[in-house]
């Protein structure tokens, strides 16, 4: 084997880190009984050096009725190199852990195909499965509610809490409740909401949205968490030891859990056959939220349905392996009815899902099981941070979900992609993510929801790309390539590539077609 | 129109085109030549759990938790000092140091144990206790999650949870911490089910 085929190695002999300066021998993380370093859950597969403190880059600036400027926020993220490197490294590590799990299961591709097929089947018979789920859940003693949109969901939950005189709600992480602005609504009606997932609690205390659907505070360094906890929980601002910070959160949250009036969870899956919903966490915080207070409310998007209990044998095998590269989450809990003396409510939420079901190009995005694998692999996401998208869902899956909520506000997001297709390749339910990103670009261009500069560029590029002869003539020389594009597209501040101080790449001296003709397809290439 | 009827009408009106039959689920093989206990324990350890191949419960508890004051037992093999049957509210269990329960079955593929409501007596004890000790019969291990989900427990219990190692988080810089919100440790003791119990 030639030297160039050997993967780069770090000092410890393992494949090189993306950022060598993050190398360290020990991160003080949990070890097994034999003393070996453990890497289950969202832990890194190798210890990483904590970067020195640096002000945390904040997310996209949000203005009323103005499209999110992902580029601007991404630039600020890149300009904070310690945050950007750690973010890039951790997420790429999750992607590599996922690959390791994939290689350990020979049936991986079969499982992906099954998961995709089961979801397609369920979505195309969703009315029947929702009715079956409802009737089973009711038979088990669960109260079932239906919400057309986020506002209706929030009113229903408020009503349940008001009926019980509940003042404090503890909850586990749920992207659906982020989507419907649940915490803001509850604050407006005077009900205290306490997030119990560590990452989500950090984000709540810092008044930021989660930046990743599985690891909500992945964009923060330990120094940022120490600042937030010192400010909001009164911890020692000089102590940014991760064990100390996690223990402080445990100690400060436990009394709130014990005294809560109600608990709330989301659901990863809802099983029509039995009326069961399934919640997966690593911290056990969903089980505390559900099992300590007398009242449990679960908010469930209608796309979470699956037909049979046995289908979980496909989805649970894929979920955590895809998300974290860990074979299963620490806790996978199945709720089929209220415990003795307890009360259980389910709110089934549409909020745009039924409309998306009717869009031939986009309905398959409803197969998503929120694992985040597409985010971990995406070069744009890893380098720009989830908050730069300024939306509930970020990364590749966000690019195709967000515009369906607000086309104008999220009109620039489908352009935050290189269309390399890696997201599609890692998706455990085989959503054609990169094709949908491209389809959204077309939709937004046709409905004039994107800015005029992007429209003009797409029009010019589209014309040229659809005429092979014109295209080849135009790029015949480096000068031609530049002539092809109007000046405002290459040297104008509106071109987001050159406006950031980057130069256009040097064009090759000879095109592929010229080389092919000159060498007779490579046969006459001088050696 | 009620929200329920409106949503059902919308998903039916927007039903995607095409034929999408529900697939049969095959059972994929699981390679375990030396039985299921060894891969179960190996996978449990990788998830941060502690496997104990056998021994007397009293001795295991004394060795592992010499400082424990409050021990809540839901198994006949050990008599604790907190009676779970007498608990009036889950938060009464906030001071439990160690809880002992029996799993219905284990899963070799992941090192998971299934703890249903009937085995816990009070569901919250498995999360409020500082440490959890789980008894598992060595002959009650299934190869993979596919087989696990063919078991009857999921049709029977109002609550059942797979525990795979202790409560864990690595939300800060990917550094792994055991004891995030729930138990700080999980030990699984291989212990055959006594006939008649």
UniProtKB/TrEMBL annotation, chain A:
InterPro entries in the cross-refs: 4Fe4S_Fe-S-bd, 4Fe4S_Fe_S_CS, FTHF_cligase-like_sf, Helical_ferredxn, LUD_dom, LutB/LldF, LutB_C, NagB/RpiA_transferase-like
Name of the featured protein: L-lactate dehydrogenase complex protein LldF
PROSITE patterns the record matches: 4FE4S_FER_1 (PS00198), 4FE4S_FER_2 (PS51379)
One Gene Ontology MF term: metal ion binding
SUPFAM superfamilies in UniProt: alpha-helical ferredoxin, NagB/RpiA/CoA transferase-like
Domain spans labelled 4Fe-4S ferredoxin-type: 358-380
PANTHER family: LACTATE UTILIZATION PROTEIN B (PTHR47153:SF2)
GO biological process: one example: lactate metabolic process
Organism: Sphingomonas abaci
Gene3D superfamilies: Alpha-helical ferredoxin, NagB/RpiA/CoA transferase-like
Region of interest: Disordered: 1-62
Automatic annotation (TrEMBL), chain B:
Taxonomy, superkingdom: Bacteria
Domain named LUD: residues: 91-189
InterPro entries associated with the record: FTHF_cligase-like_sf, LUD_dom, NagB/RpiA_transferase-like
SUPFAM superfamilies: NagB/RpiA/CoA transferase-like
Gene3D superfamilies reported in the protein's UniProt record: NagB/RpiA/CoA transferase-like
PANTHER family: LACTATE UTILIZATION PROTEIN C (PTHR43682:SF1)
Protein name: L-lactate dehydrogenase complex protein LldG
Organism placement in taxonomy: Bacteria, Pseudomonadati, Pseudomonadota, Alphaproteobacteria, Sphingomonadales
């Amino acid at each position: 084997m030639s030297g160039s085929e050997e993967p780069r190695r770090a000092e410890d002999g393992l494949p090189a880190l993306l950022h060598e300066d993050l190398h360290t021998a020990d991160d003080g993380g949990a070890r097994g009984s034999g003393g070996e370093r453990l890497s289950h859950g969202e832990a890194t597969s190798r210890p990483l050096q904590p970067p020195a403190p640096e002000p945390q880059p904040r997310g996209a600036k949000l203005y009323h009725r103005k499209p999110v400027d992902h580029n601007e926020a991404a630039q600020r993220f890149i300009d904070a190199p310690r945050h950007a490197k750690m973010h890039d490294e951790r997420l790429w590590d999750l992607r590599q852990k996922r690959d390791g799990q994939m290689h350990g299961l020979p049936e991986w591709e079969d499982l992906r195909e099954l998961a995709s097929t089961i979801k397609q089947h369920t979505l195309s018979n969703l009315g029947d499965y929702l009715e079956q789920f409802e009737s089973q859940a009711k038979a088990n003693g669960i109260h079932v509610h239906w919400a057309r949109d986020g506002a209706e969901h929030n009113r229903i939950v408020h009503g349940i809490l008001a009926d019980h005189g509940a003042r404090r709600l503890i909850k586990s992480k749920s992207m659906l409740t982020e989507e419907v602005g649940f915490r803001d609504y509850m604050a407006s009606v005077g009900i205290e909401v306490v997030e119990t997932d560590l990452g989500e609690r950090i984000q709540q205390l810092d008044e930021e949205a989660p930046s990743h659907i599985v690891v909500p505070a992945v964009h923060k360094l330990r120094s940022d968490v120490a600042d937030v906890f010192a400010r909001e929980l009164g911890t020692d601002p000089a102590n940014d030891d991760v064990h100390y910070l996690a223990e402080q959160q445990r100690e400060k949250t436990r009394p709130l859990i014990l005294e809560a009036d109600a608990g709330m969870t989301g659901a990863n899956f809802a099983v029509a056959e039995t009326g069961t919903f399934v919640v997966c966490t690593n911290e056990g915080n969903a089980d505390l939220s559900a099992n300590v207070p007398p009242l449990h409310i679960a908010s469930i998007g209608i796309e979470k349905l699956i037909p049979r209990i046995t289908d979980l044998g496909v989805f649970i095998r894929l979920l955590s392996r895809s998300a974290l590269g860990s074979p299963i989450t620490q806790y996978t809990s199945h709720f089929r009815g209220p415990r003795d003396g307890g009360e259980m409510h389910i709110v089934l939420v549409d909020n745009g899902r039924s409309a998306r079901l009717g869009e031939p190009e986009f309905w398959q995005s409803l197969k998503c099981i929120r694992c985040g694998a597409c985010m971990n692999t995406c070069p744009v996401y890893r380098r720009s941070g989830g908050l730069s998208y300024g939306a509930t869902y970020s990364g590749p899956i966000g690019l195709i979900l967000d515009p369906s909520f607000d086309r104008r506000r999220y009109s620039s997001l489908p352009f935050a992609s290189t269309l390399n297709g890696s997201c599609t390749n890692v998706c455990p339910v085989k959503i054609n993510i990169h094709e949908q990103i491209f389809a959204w670009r077309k939709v937004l261009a046709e409905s004039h929801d994107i800015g005029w500069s992007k429209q003009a560029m797409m029009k010019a590029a589209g014309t040229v790309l659809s005429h092979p002869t014109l295209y080849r003539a135009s790029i015949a020389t480096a000068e031609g390539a530049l002539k092809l594009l109007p000046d405002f597209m290459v040297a104008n501040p509106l071109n987001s590539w050159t406006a950031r101080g980057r130069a256009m790449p040097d064009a090759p001296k000879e095109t592929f077609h010229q080389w092919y003709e000159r060498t007779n397809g490579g046969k006459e290439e001088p050696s | 129109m009620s929200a329920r009827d409106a949503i059902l009408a919308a998903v039916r009106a927007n039903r995607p085109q095409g034929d999408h039959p529900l697939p049969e689920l095959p059972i994929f093989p699981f390679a375990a030549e030396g039985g299921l206990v060894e891969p179960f324990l190996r996978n449990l350890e990788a998830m941060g759990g502690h496997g104990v191949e056998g021994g007397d419960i009293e001795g295991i508890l004394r060795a592992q938790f010499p400082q424990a004051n409050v021990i809540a037992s839901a198994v006949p093999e050990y008599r604790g000092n907190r009676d779970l049957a007498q608990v009036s509210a889950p938060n009464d269990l906030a001071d439990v140091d160690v809880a002992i329960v029996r799993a219905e079955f284990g899963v070799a593929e992941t090192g998971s144990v299934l703890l249903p409501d009937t085995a816990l007596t009070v569901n919250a004890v498995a999360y409020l206790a500082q440490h959890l000790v789980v008894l598992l019969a060595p002959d009650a291990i299934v190869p993979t999650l596919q087989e696990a989900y063919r078991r009857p427990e999921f049709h029977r219990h109002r609550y059942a949870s797979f525990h795979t190692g202790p409560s864990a988080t690595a939300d800060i810089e990917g550094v792994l911490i055991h004891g995030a919100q729930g138990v700080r440790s999980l030990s699984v003791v291989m212990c055959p089910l006594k006939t008649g119990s």
